[in-house]
Amino acid sequence: MTPLEVNQMDRFANKVAVVTGGSSGIGRATALAFAREGARVVIAARRPKPALETVKEIENAGGTACFVQTDVSKSGDVEHLIARTVETYGRLDCAFNNAARTDETIAPMADLSEEDFDKTVSVNLKGVWLGMKYQIRQMLKQKPKGGVIVNTSSGNGLGGCPQASFYSATKAGIIALSKSAAWEYAQEGVRVNAFVAGAFRTPMLEGSMDRAAGGDHEARKVVEDRWIKMTAAGRIGDPAEAAEAVLWLCSDASSYVVGHSLIVDGGLSSLWR
Ligand SMILES: NC(=O)c1ccc[n+]([C@@H]2O[C@H](COP(=O)([O-])OP(=O)(O)OC[C@H]3O[C@@H](n4cnc5c(N)ncnc54)[C@H](OP(=O)(O)O)[C@@H]3O)[C@@H](O)[C@H]2O)c1
């Protein structure tokens, strides 16, 4: 093992990290990566089973983690999540606000309901704001003061997306919320950035591709091929590759990166931005 590898493995020693949506996909990969690099990890999600499986996986590998059942759209749950984190591990150093849902109905916006709008906005956008609200309060009052926050946006949030307008609007809003928070708190020691995800192979992406194919096996292959052809990398990303970018944003190596929206998408958006 080289000295660099030793340092890499210690990057988050003695740190405490909260990962919302840490039981699946990008959040799960990030929770595992944080733990591998020494952090004590709090996994927040609604369903206990996959969350507890992730905790077990971390513990079996010698790491430290716990699960706090949380619906990120509920203020009381998010306040409780941060309180439990501090009770259990003493402080909060890194927060990855990553939980989200896709639009339930795939349709142009004039055909969508107020209920669809409220559901998507309350989880994706309000959930990120609530996360930051309680995380920032904790980071400002703890000693030593400060911390790092990363919020998950999407390539859809860089422009828009037909048939997914509410989801895209929330993901654009997350970039604005992140930049606003970055300016409001950077000089008080809280560093905030957005992670803008392209296509990563997770249950959310698989579900979106299944829905777009309408249950047809051949159509499903065409949908997936279309995604692959849109990336310069010629493939869909592995959630572990997303985790690497998030950990870098949370690490001291990115200490001068503030209010950034880091696009990690295999080149998908590179031709039009
Ligand atoms: N995968 C992609 O290609 C892609 C592309 C662009 C952006 N993203 C973004 O990346 C993030 C992670 O997505 P993913 O693909 O990894 O999705 P995923 O595998 O479906 O995981 C979603 C996670 O969020 C949790 N969650 C959902 N609603 C929640 C709520 N109300 N409160 C608390 N937790 C909730 C889920 O657990 P429970 O259901 O148990 O609550 C699960 O742990 C999302 O912000 C997504 O928009 C993904």
How would you describe this structure to a colleague?
The protein is α/β, with parallel strands linked by helices and 273 residues long. The protein has a single domain (3-200, 237-264), classed as NAD(P)-binding Rossmann-like Domain (Rossmann fold). It has helices spanning 3-9, 25-36, 48-60, 75-89, 114-141, 165-185, 203-213, 217-230, 239-250; strands at 16-20, 40-45, 64-69, 94-97, 147-154, 190-197, 261-264. Strands 3-2-1-4-5-6-7 form a seven-stranded parallel sheet, sandwiched between helices. Helix 4 (75-89) runs parallel beside helix 5 (114-141) and helix 5 (114-141) runs parallel beside helix 6. NADP nicotinamide-adenine-dinucleotide phosphate (NAP) binds at residues 20-21, 23-27, 45-47, 70-73, 98-101, 123, 152, 154, 197, 199-200, 202-205.
What are its keywords?
about 270 residues, disordered N terminus, alpha/beta, Rossmann fold, 9 helices, binds NADP nicotinamide-adenine-dinucleotide phosphate
Name the ligand types: NADP nicotinamide-adenine-dinucleotide phosphate
Major pleated sheet: 7 strands, parallel
The termini sit apart by 39 Å
Strand content: 15-25%
- What is the top-level CATH class? Alpha Beta
Q: What are the secondary-structure elements, in order, as H or E? A: HEHEHEHEHEHEHHHE
Which stretches of 5+ consecutive residues score pLDDT under 50?
1-6
Number of domain units: 1
Oligomer: single chain
CATH fold category name: Rossmann fold
C-alpha Rg (nearest Å): 18 Å
In percent, how helical is the residue content?
A: 40-55%
Strand order in the largest sheet: 3-2-1-4-5-6-7
Counting DSSP H or I runs of 4 or more residues, the number of helices is 9
Structural class: alpha/beta
